[in-house]
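User: quick one
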Amino acid sequence: MSDWRNRETRDPIARKKARHLSPPARSRAMHAMSARAAQGRFVLQKCCDCGEITYPPRDACPVCWGELTWQDVPAGALVLSETTIRVSTDLYFRDHLPWRMGKVALDAGPVALAHLHRDLATHDRAEIRLMLDRGGNAALFAVPPNGDFDMADPQFREFTVPLKGKTVLVTDARSAIGQAVVTALHKAGAGLIIAGIQAPGRQSDTQLAALQLDNVQSMPLDIVDQVSLAEALSKIAGPLDLVINTARHVRAGGVSIGSNPVEMRRAFEISAIGMARLAGACAPMLAGRPHGAFVDIISSQALSGAADQSALSAAEAARLSLLQSFRHEMRSSGVRVLSVFVGPVDDEDHQTMPPPKVAPARIAATIVDALQQGREQSCVGDVASDAMARWLDDPMLYAREKNL
Amino acid sequence: MTDQSSNTALSGLIGEIASGDLRVVDLTNILSTDFPVIVLPSEFGQCEPFRMETVSRYDGNGPAWYWNNISMNEHTGTHFDAPAHWITGRDVPNGTVDAIPPRDFIHPAVVIDIADESAQDEDFIVTRAFLENWEKANGQIPEKHWILLRSNWSKKVGTLEYLNLKDDGAHSPGPDADAMRFLVQERDCIGLGVETVGTDAGQASSFDEPLPAHSILHGNGRYGLQCLTNLDQLPVFGSVIVATPLKIKGGSGSPLRVIALAPANGE
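Assistant: Done. Structure below.
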């Protein structure tokens, strides 16, 4: 167990800190850019007629009024100038002053205003990240190139979910994914990791290596049960920063062939209703934190019905829908809601499936990376990435192809 | 009008309960969401635990009233097993909870203490020889009685030792087939009541005759009571069990409140 003396202290008399959001999006084109930023892509608009690449987002080409399309472009840039903002009327920025911004010449063409990492100066080469700000809108953030930079930059931290010293709740921590997530969080420096163990418990559970790590505390937790959830949350020492939900119920079975209503109900209870119950119970706790976040692992089967895993794909589709609702609700509090899509996992749930399967440790590594990069949506492994690409391209075709 | 004198037995009973000469002992565990349910090998369907969802609690969903939706398996918490629960009892007449004659809900009990044996051996098996030795020391088991195995297992409720799941399955005491045949065929018992999560021992699915308590009890139209508590408050002879399962249409069993009436002086 970690030493409670090292935990964050709070002034009991101080008035509750109101948390403000970055200014809202101004146009539909800006929302389209944010939707792509959520996937970790660096995109700009390109004119279908004259080929001009343009920024900021617009509804038509500023050169020829042609139609614009989103395109992934090189992320390199040159810092042309810098400035430090010391006064602002915006409530969010007033809390974070001084704030550095700079003019950057994008390798893709346009010159843009970007938030500047503290290690960047005029004439430096930079990599531009398209990141989601506290309000969930895309913003350009310039960091030193090659990915080797100080993540503790206070401005950069505002766009990410720091893990060091944070208190994290992991559901279904006994599962292969759960154990891997606990281990990865421990390695990433989380302060206290609450490992939720689903009933029935085995006496040997406590022997699991992941649950014996420093700063890891196991407790019974069944997200299907409101009493269990309330009891577990009440036992967490100090404020809760982060929830990572790994719980799900993977069973084969169709609708009219090989169906099992008991298993189907269970899948919905855990994936959909359980996730919503967990999110609802944790939301007020996360909303009070400076970097609150909720991470949910979703099967890529959620994107379209799978005949051989009909209950799983339906329950995960419901989960995806509920997660989107929850994300919308959390926007106003600045709590980040991250989704991590996974294909078949190399665990006991997928013994009969042929490779490729993703290793639980890879899922855990992606979660840590998504938090540290502030990426709202991630896909782990080829199966999930391919499913997402095909679904984004043509959902109806994907639904047909999936069940050929 | 009923003749007053025809009620002497009942009024005597009520009088003795009121005076405390008869104790009413609650043999029921609290039905809570964390009360363990039996765990079967993973190839089988599983027993749902007790779940409770608040509909309203003097709030916007019901300003003046408090109530919950509940769900569970028929075999969750302190519960009753009807003959139809087991394949051997599938053709027993009136074998489901809605059809069991109500007079079977009230029967005397004999309490057999296996607490020391179970404390020493978590897989303690009640054999015919053990029962015959018990009878030599305590007297013959009368017919038409509930047989209650007092293992003190209920004192483990709330700990992992209650289900006592290990890599090779559950470990808890219970009877073997010869003991069950003895109780059913030679002692004509009403049923078997236990403190553990099942009438059978934790490892009973590996016995030469697997799950003998379920198989033999229900095949002969007898009943089971599981997850009992407070058996240590009952005398060896002389208590009466009141166990009335819910009237679930075609039900295989039911959670229920089990009470015992017992003389205050212990015997």
